[in-house]
Structure formats: structure tokens, C-alpha cells
From TrEMBL:
Residue ranges occupied by any DUF1989 domain in the UniProt entry: 45-206
InterPro entries recorded: DUF1989
Name listed for the protein in its UniProt record: Aminomethyltransferase
Source organism of this protein record: Halomonas litopenaei
């Protein structure tokens, strides 16, 4: 599976990952064992971890930025066919802009509407360009040991509810601030969201939604010198 540790090519890292998998909260403590949340209850995804939930068509999912500085990588997969997934490439084409705004629908790799953005109390700065962090990204940043990462959080969060996917798409990076400069260069800077800002999505099809409290602590995407934080999640009608 793209982006995951290969036990054949990375034996040392794979051994440490296998041990981690046994105790990592993404696997051992899902928000709900079957991924089905109780409506109106606020759940918290632990810092540096991920969670997967079932979002039925027509239902709302709220993400809450508890600290104001925490980025959330988010994916969605069609429950009937997980090979259909939320696609940032197709969404940018569908919308004609880089970042969705309230009232926009994000689409799948088959160009079907998956999630509608219905509310956003933040300034609306999010990212659709940057791939999820993985073990190789942290190696390039100079980290030699295993580092929590969003790709592995995706895998473990799905395993926690008994699911797997064959592909790791580019995520919708909620609250991630990566300005595109006039010369085409990108800069990784802290979020501009504030404490308890929330963003609400409506499911246009029944899907698995996976969220990762991004554990990036090398660049400034979660704030300069800040610890990574938890994210609140709530299911609504």
C-alpha cells in the first residue's frame, strides 16, 4: 500500500512499527469500535493519532480545532467501493479554485460529490496541494528514528474499525496554511485558525471519513515550537 512501511524493504523500521501498532491509540482506541458515532457527542482524537468514522449520506461531521494551531489531514472513501475516494485533484478541477469554501462540494476520483462544506468559522485557510506526511518525509527532514505520520495514522485508524484501502490519496489538509507565492513557491507556516474554530461537512454519499491529527513537529505547519494537539469530532443530523 503506497506510503506504508514495507516489511521487506525496511526491516528495522517495520519491526518498530509492528510494536507501535500494538499500542498506538489509532488502533487500540478507536472513537467507536464500528466507526459509528453517537450524534451530538463530542469525541477527541488524541494528538499525533488518527480515527476513522462512518458518515452516512445526509449526515454532518464537525471538526473542532481545540488549540487553533492543529492541522487535520482528512480523507473519505465510499463505503460501497473504497476505490472511490475524495480526490483533491478532481475537486480543484470541479471547483475551479485551490481551496473549497462554504457551499462547495468536494468530489471523488470518479467526479461524484462526496462532501459538502456547510460551515467554517475559521478564516477559510486550508490546503489541497500537500501530500500526507510519511516515514520518508521525516527521513528527508533529518529524523532517523520512527516518527508518527499521517499515512500510518490512516492505515491504523481504518484497521481499528476493520477496514483497509488499497491507495493513500492526497488529503484535504484542514487548517493547513501553505501560501502559494507569485513565483510558484510554497511556504509552510502556522495555521491562522483560532481556538475552537470548527468546520462542518455534509456527506453526499455514505463514506468512511478518516482524520489524522498531523504529528508534524519539524516544520511550522502546527505552529512554531508548539506541541501537536487533539482534535474534536462530532456527528450531527
Amino acid at each position: 500500500m503506497g506510503g506504508y512501511i514495507s516489511r521487506d524493504r525496511e526491516p528495522d523500521l517495520a519491526a518498530s512499527f509492528g510494536a507501535l501498532e500494538e499500542k498506538q491509540l489509532s488502533v487500540s482506541q478507536p472513537l467507536a469500535r464500528n466507526g459509528v458515532l453517537q450524534p451530538g457527542k463530542v469525541y477527541f482524537i488524541p494528538a499525533r493519532c488518527g480515527a476513522a468514522v462512518v458518515l452516512e449520506k445526509g449526515k454532518m461531521l464537525t471538526l473542532i480545532n481545540v488549540s487553533g494551531l492543529q492541522v487535520c489531514d482528512m480523507w473519505a472513501f465510499n463505503t460501497s467501493d473504497p476505490d472511490e475516494f475524495l480526490s483533491m485533484e478532481h475537486t480543484r478541477t470541479h471547483l475551479g479554485r485551490l481551496v473549497p469554501v462554504v457551499g462547495d462540494s468536494m468530489v471523488s476520483n470518479r467526479r461524484n460529490e462526496m462532501l459538502e462544506l456547510v460551515e467554517d468559522t475559521s478564516p477559510g485557510v486550508h490546503d489541497t496541494l500537500i501530500a500526507a506526511c510519511d516515514i520518508n518525509r521525516y527521513r528527508q527532514l533529518g529524523v532517523s528514528e520512527y516518527h508518527d505520520n499521517c499515512v500510518d495514522n490512516l492505515r491504523m485508524a481504518l484497521l481499528a474499525i476493520g477496514k483497509e484501502v488499497s491507495h493513500v490519496p492526497s488529503p484535504f489538509n484542514v487548517w493547513m496554511n501553505v501560501p502559494l507565492d507569485g513565483d510558484g513557491s510554497l511556504t509552510f507556516v502556522p495555521p491562522v485558525a483560532k481556538r475552537d474554530d470548527r468546520i462542518v461537512f455534509k456527506a453526499m454519499m455514505t463514506c468512511y471519513v478518516v482524520m489524522s491529527c498531523c504529528p508534524q513537529d519539524i516544520t511550522a505547519v502546527n505552529g512554531v515550537g508548539s506541541q501537536t494537539e487533539s482534535i474534536g469530532v462530532m456527528l450531527g443530523d
